[in-house]
């Protein structure tokens, strides 16, 4: 059963578990469980995707209950009229809040994008980050005797593929569990020492105007048990309240 965060006659939002695909993909042909099919069976009606979250990313996933609402929601995404806030655990101490304004070239899949244009110019990409907590743990990972981590709040202003992961790596603070852009030693260390495998990136909040009523709507996805045990171990429990009092910027984008 998927955790339903919001539902009315027009749209539905769920807390997507980490490791679950949104829909069937030939790139993950061995997977048999998907959000769309699971949710369809759970509520007894068809659902329509309007944005995506990558398989390892957890958090708010919004779906429409009709093709017309899907079109209206997709327009909001395309025009960057939806605000999304993520939380992430990254390597090292992030010392201050800031903004990454760093253009990104399009990431392409070797098979799916075999015939796509290979020399596209880099596209503008902007992400904002805010430091919530830091922690140094007495475990040796790599060449250091201790391991340092930061809990950060991330707000993408644009929606490039893997934007938040790539921007945090650009800052030399890769997101823990990122196998494509991160620190493999730190990923293994987090799993080995803290029993916390997987990507530590969670889509915590989404703010939008309801596509039919026009009323403002804010949807929040609580951290799952993996996140809860880590913030407890790192003495970050007080940071959980950030999920309730997040302040949205005037404009933000999407990431996956």
TrEMBL record:
One Pfam family, short name: PseudoU_synth_2
PANTHER family: MITOCHONDRIAL RNA PSEUDOURIDINE SYNTHASE, TRNA PSEUDOURIDINE SYNTHASE C
Enzyme class: isomerase
Name of the protein described by the UniProt record: tRNA pseudouridine synthase C
E.C. code: 5.4.99.26
Entry superkingdom: Bacteria
Keywords from the UniProt entry: Isomerase, tRNA processing
Domain Pseudouridine synthase RsuA/RluA-like: 10-170
CDD domains: PseudoU_synth_TruC (cd02563)
GO molecular-function term, one example from the UniProt record: tRNA pseudouridine(65) synthase activity
Single biological process term from Gene Ontology: enzyme-directed rRNA pseudouridine synthesis
Stated role: Responsible for synthesis of pseudouridine from uracil-65 in transfer RNAs.
NCBIfam families: PRK11112.1
Taxonomic source organism: Rouxiella sp. WC2420
Catalytic reactions on record: uridine(65) in tRNA = pseudouridine(65) in tRNA
